[in-house]
Amino acid sequence: MQIDTLPLTAEAFAALDADDPLRAFRDEFALPEGVIYLDGNSLGAAPKAALARAQEVVSREWATDLIKSWNTAGWFELPERLGDKLAPVIGAGAGEVLVTDATGLNVFKVLAAALALRPDRKVIVMEGSNFPTDNYMAQGLVEFLGQGHQIRFAEKDDILAAIDQDVAAVCLTHVHYKTGHILDMQGITAAAHQAGALAIWDLCHSAGAMPVDLNGARADFAVGCSYKYLNGGPGGPAFLFVARRHQGEARQPLTGWWGHKAPFAFSRDYAPAPGLARFRTGTQPILSMAVAEVGLDIFARADMALIRQKSLALTSLFIRLVDERCGSFGFGLASPRDADARGSQVALTHATGYPIMKALIAHGVIGDFRAPDILRFGFTPLYTSYMDVWNAAETLYRIMASDEWKKPVYSAVDAVT
């Protein structure tokens, strides 16, 4: 597939759809008629099977079997069972991943564990333009510990230079949430280890969108969410990874009863479970975890290499179309132009990006806006078609050429952008 030379015609895009080896997966998702959904990097589309699974959990496992389902339906083991299903998608082994809690909580847990493993070091390296929750949780942890830790913020090109003998942990997002640029997981992890530091990776914008190889990169810890490319549902459970080599020593501060070595002994004092189980905290949200399993089961049948190949094609073609059709309307490109250097999203910039995105959404093309000037378009290869890309670019052109986006209704700011 020669994307750089492909004719920019509807017929050529339709032909790509006809030959797409992933095209059958699209039928497994509930996609509203007349909507082009390019926001799966924020909230993945619902698998059709999710409704039936939710109904089964509520009507049979909860309403009929009641509390027996902790044993008969395997509720208590869900964090480990889902973690083992997710592990191959992110290059982890069995027993190294838990699906549990929220991303921010998991950042707090694994960062605290990493700092405890490097007690004589006081510096955390983070990307300053990182998704804010990672920065906020690190700042809160530093303040709570009160041990003189500090965060050294560095942007993409300065990260390696920021890693020295004072660094306890490097805590970074693999794919940047705004621009989509990819950090070199293997190279940065190796540099951290050479300096004696540990490496923590946030996979929220890469898990399910591209191949990830945590063990191949020798990552120490990782976190991520299920509700973006993994299609786990709004507010779906997050996950964490602890490399097996750390599991006997690493401890986390949120010592809830699910992390106890014998939770149903109900002893007074905490004693950590062996291995990964000590990173559990309290009772988990079973309904959302059961629904998240549906998305993970889809990925068990998908080829991540094909997903990445299609992702590169979708994003590259969208950039080509915007360049050709909308080049005179003041758009810039915040994402890397080099396809291999970006995740599965395209970030455009525009001085009046917010009303433009609202106009797009009103006309059936759903992306999102990130302040101050970024229009984000997420391309989810399991259900985004090539004709979606063609029609999205055409809709953007019509909105700009007709000045549709200038209507006052599109300038009213919503609570969620």
Automatic annotation (TrEMBL):
GO terms for molecular function: kynureninase activity; pyridoxal phosphate binding. It catalyses: L-kynurenine + H2O = anthranilate + L-alanine + H(+); 3-hydroxy-L-kynurenine + H2O = 3-hydroxyanthranilate + L-alanine + H(+). Its EC number is 3.7.1.3. Keywords: Hydrolase, Pyridine nucleotide biosynthesis, Pyridoxal phosphate. The keyword Repeat does not apply. Pyridoxal 5'-phosphate binds at residues 103, 131-134, 173, 202, 205, 227, 257, 283. HAMAP family: Kynureninase. Homodimer. Belongs to the kynureninase family. This is Kynureninase. The gene is kynU.
